[in-house]
Amino acid sequence: KAGVTQTPRYLIKTRGQQVTLSCSPISGHRSVSWYQQTPGQGLQFLFEYFSETQRNKGNFPGRFSGRQFSNSRSEMNVSTLELGDSALYLCASSLGLAGHEQYFGPGTRLTVT
Amino acid sequence: DAKTTQPTSMDCAEGRAANLPCNHSTISGNEYVYWYRQIHSQGPQYIIHGLKNNETNEMASLIITEDRKSSTLILPHATLRDTAVYYCIVAGGGGTSYGKLTFGQGTILTVHP
Questions:
Q1: Please, are residues A113 and A19 in contact by the beta-carbon 8 Å criterion?
Q2: Is A112 left (phi over 0), alpha (psi -120 to 50) or beta?
Q3: Which of A42, A45, A105 comes nearest B100 by C-beta?
Q4: What is d(CA B11, CA B16) in angstroms, rounded to the nearest whole number?
Q5: Considering just the CA atoms, what is the radius of gyration of chain A in Å?
Q6: CA distance A86 to A83
Q7: Do A56 and B46 touch (CB under 8 A)?
Q8: Closest Cα partner for A21 from A55, A58, A46?
Q9: For testing the chain B interface, which of A4, A21, A23, A43 should be mutated: the one with the most B CBs within 10 Å?
Q10: Which one of A54, A100, A104 would you mutate to disrupt binding with B, by most B Cβ within 10 Å of its Cβ?
Q11: What mean pLDDT comes out for the span A5-23?
């Protein structure tokens, strides 16, 4: 069974731009969670989606948003990029709602210049 | 979510058992203990989880004390590929932990030849 895939793997953007990251969960998994990893803050939860609905959200500004499609694929968007948004963005999928046995993708490395 | 405390770093000789401790004294009755690891530049990898009984799978064993205030992850025969950051996470029980994994700083395990 294929794992979680994320695209693109690397991205360079300029301050003020917006970016969309994509995540395809493991087949059959219906929940997708997003995390941000930085050297200073570590791994932080962004949000979780299940059945196309956001079920939980971390402490991030409204510039961070996401959505989930009927096939469980998910996207996250960051608008008006700031230098501090440079991070590894990780997507994880789990079988059901509020699942904590999560399977992570390789991440998207975003650099904001 | 209950807070966890782990040693910052540990060393282990290749072929020996690696025993990684975790304290979670404020764990509540319906919360589980999860272990993940992150090998450099990769997404975190689920290892094992448990509620109160000891658990074993092909990767590791999890020993939870009777009072559930601490646990130990055991890698029975550590290899160089087990060098990683290991995270102990308490989650579950519903409420605001819906699908959210709260990562601490983890334990950097270094396996030496």
A1: no
A2: beta
A3: A45
A4: 11
A5: 13
A6: 6
A7: no
A8: A46
A9: A43
A10: A100
A11: 98
- Average predicted confidence (pLDDT) for chain A: 95
Instruction: Give residue-wise pLDDT tens across range B41-85.
Output: 899 999 999 999 899 999 999 999 999 999 999 999 999 999 999
Closest-CA distance, B45 to chain A, in angstroms, reads 7
Handedness of CA B76, B79, B82, B84 (dihedral sign): positive
With contacts defined as CB-CB under 8 Å, which chain A residues touch B42? 106-107
* Closest-CA distance of chain A to residue B44, Å: 6
Question: What tens digit of pLDDT does each residue of A70-107 get?
Answer: 999 999 999 999 999 999 999 999 987 767 899 999 99
